[in-house]
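C-ALPHA CELLS:
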Amino acid sequence: MALLLRVVISPKEARRLKLSEVPESVDQLVDVIKERLELQGDFLVQFEDPDFGNALCNLTTMSELPAEHAVLHIVWDSDSSSLNQCIGSVSSLDTASVHSGDIRSSWTDSIQTNLRHVTQWPSPFPIPKLSYDVELQLRKGNETYEKSKKGLDVTREIKMEILDKIAQAIFEIKSYPEKDELESVASSLVLKYPCLKEPGSITGYEGWKTSIKYKLGNFRSKLRRAGCNEVDVNSKRKGGTEDNSPFTLKRPRRGEVNHVPDYPQHHSDFTLEEERLHLVEEMKKKKRDQTLIQHKMELTFSLRRKEIVEGQPMVSEVQERWPALFSCEQISQEFCRITSKDLLESFRGSLDIYVPRLLRLYRARKGAFGQKMEDVLDALDEKTSDILTHRKTAALRGLPIFVRDDTSKFFLQCSASDTEEQVIRDATVAILSVHEDDDALNAVNVAVVLEGAIILQDLPDLCTAFAYLFGLLYTMNIDYPKEMFYTFEAVQCIFFDLGSRCSQCIRSLRTKLQL
C-alpha cells in the first residue's frame, strides 16, 4: 500500500515524500527518509495525530500512522551534524553585514521558540498522566466502582493533583478554552476515572467542570505573574491608560493557535529589537538575503505579535517597523505561525471543494437575492475561457450576497485612467480591481487595501487577493469589517476550519454545504 508523507524538516522547510510500500518499522522509515531526502545526523520522528486534533506524538510503531497520508515532524538532536551542516550552508551565503555566528544563533533560537501546533480541540480530551500515588488510588477506586458503584472519597491532595495537571494540559493546547471545551475535559475525566463521578449530578461532572474553570483561571494568574505574554496582555494596568479608553480583552477569538507566544529562550525586548533593526537594514538593500529575512522573521515573531495585539497600531506604523512583513511570502508565513495552517494551500483546497456546492446554492435560491446574484451568475455564464478561475471568482463574489453582507465598500473597481487614491481613500478593508478603459470585465491589476492604502498589488486574480487579505487580517489582528462580517466568518469557519464557535447564519450555511 502506498503512503504519501509531508515531512517537516525545519520551521522553514517541508518536503513531500511518496513511498510505494509502507516500511515495516520506524527505524526503516527513518532510513528511507534519510536516503530520499539526503539527511544526515540523528533525529526523532513525530506525527500529527488526528485522534487528538493533530497534536504531535512520538512515532513508536508504523501502525500509529494514519492510512494513505500523514504529516511527519523531524525533531533534531541538539548536536546533530545535519543541523550544523544546514547552519553552515546558510552562514556561507553572501551576507556582508551579518556574521555567521548571528545566523547560527537566529536559526537555533527559532527552533527553540515555543509555538503550539494543535489547530483543533482534541476529542476526546487526553487526560494527562498523574503522579504514581494518585494514579494508584484512582485505579483502586475504579475497581471498587465497578463492583459496588461507590465513588472514591476525593481528598484535597488528589483533587489538587488532578486539577494542576489538567490545567497545564489545557494551556498547552489553548489558553482560553470555550465552555463546551471545558465540558469535554470534565467528561473525559470521569470517563477515564468513573470513580470520580459526582452522585446526584445529571452528568456526573458538573462540579469538576466548575473546578477546572477556576483552576485554569488561577493557573493563568500564576503565568501572568511569571511574565507569560499571552495572558499578560490581558492584565489591567494600574493607573489606567492616558486616554481612559475602556479595557478590552485581547484573547484569541478566531482560532489563533499562537496568539501572543513567549519570547525565544535567551531573548528579551532588547535583543529582539536589535534583530528587528537588522531586518529593517536588510530590507533597504537592493539585493536582499531572503534566508536571513526568513530566520529573523521567525525569531522576532513573538515581539511582533506582542506589539500588534497589545498596542493595536495602525497598518502604516507596522509597515514602518516591520517592512518585511508585507510581502506575499511573509504574509503566508505569519499566518502559518499564528494558525498552523497554510494560507494559500488551505484556501485553494477549500475552494476546490466548496465552489461547485456554493454555485448550486446560488442558482437554486437566486430569486431570493435579487439582481445582484443574477448579475454574478450571468457574468459567469458569459465566460468562455479560464472557466475554473471565473467559477471561483463568482463563488467569492456571491458569498457576501448569500449571507446578506454589503459589498459596496469591499469590492472596489476603477479604470486604469482613474486615480486610485480617490477610490480607496475611505476604504478600511477592501479589494480593488483595476480595468482597462475599454474592458470592464477583465482586471489588469488586483490589489489589497487596508486603512485607505494599497498593501499588495499586481495579484493574479480576486481569489488570491482574498486569501492574502484574510491572512493580513490575522497578521494585523484586525477585526472583520461589520459590512462583511459573515463573509469572513464563513471563510474562517468553513474554508479554514478555525475556531470552535460561529454564528447561526454560518452554521446554517455549513450544514447546507455538507448536504
